[in-house]
Amino acid sequence: MGMYAMTGGATGIGAAIRTRLRAAGHEVIVVDIKDADIVADLGTAQGRRAALDGIRARAGDGLDGFVPCAGLSGNVADHALMASLNFFGTVELVEGLKDLLVARKGAVVLIASNSAPHPTSEDYVNALLAGDEATARTLAGAMQGHPVYSGSKLALARWMRRNMREYAAAGVRLNAIAPGYTRTPMTSAVEADPAYADAIREFLAATPLGRAGQPEDQADAVLFLLGPAASFICGSVLFVDGGYDAMTRPDAF
Q1: How far out from the chain centre does Cα 49 lie?
Q2: 253 in any annotated domain
Q3: In terms of pTM, does the model score above 0.90?
Q4: In the predicted model, what is the mean pLDDT of residues 83-101?
């Protein structure tokens, strides 16, 4: 069986991915801010270094896959932290584990969002992609929550597609899923927030399949992209959102 690492595996979508992988017999190294094999705050440079050191100490000769799932939603008050965790807490770990993934021709699945195409600041997205965390945090602090969130996920998708060729040449497939609204402890808190509750109800009512996603819906998509059935899929963003993106952007693909 395989050796996998992931972040954000304590709850929600991450917990469902962890459960699916372990049920298939794989060893899974979990990084999270609590209740994990490696406890680390990926919103900080120090925490990211600790996570990388911890994964390396446990991974042996390589990784068959990596799923950076840790992230924050758009309703959190600390917008700068959202930028740091959602983007740098993913990209720096993928880059820092590249050699372990190359060793086993592993696969990486990022967690983007069907909010990624939503309006945001291109200056903010460009700062993320340039690796300028200080500027990205400053810009995020002056923005509303949802554009900070959507911009962080747009930057992840762009980073994945821009870097796919280099990783593929080394035998590592980069892909991403773009979840729609999925019921987790994190999104339940957003749904209970009066500032977002009406918008979320409208969002769910408009979803073509007529329901919210479940963590298992996202986990199944991640395991597919990690596995041999997806061996020729590389650089793709798979929308797992009940048809919402296709409904709202029918001519964009």
Answers
A1: 18
A2: no
A3: yes
A4: 98
Scanning the chain, the segments in alpha helix (DSSP H) are 12-23, 45-59, 79-83, 89-96, 98-103, 122-129, 133-141, 145-169, 185-191, 197-206, 215-226, 244-248
Provide the annotated active-site residues.
149
- The closest alpha carbon to 245, from 120, 114, 119, belongs to 114
Number of structural domains found in the chain: 1
* 161 exposure class (CB count in 10 Å sphere: 0-12, 13-18, 19+): middle
Looking up residue 198, the CATH number of its domain turns out to be 3.40.50.720
**In the Cβ-directed half-sphere of 162, how many Cα atoms lie within 13 Å?**
10
Residue pair 67/16 in contact (Cβ under 8 Å)? The answer is no
pLDDT of residue 190: 74
Q: Tell me the mean pLDDT in the region 147-170.
A: 98
User: Is there a domain that residue 211 lies in?
Assistant: yes
Whether residue 65 is contained in a domain is answered as yes
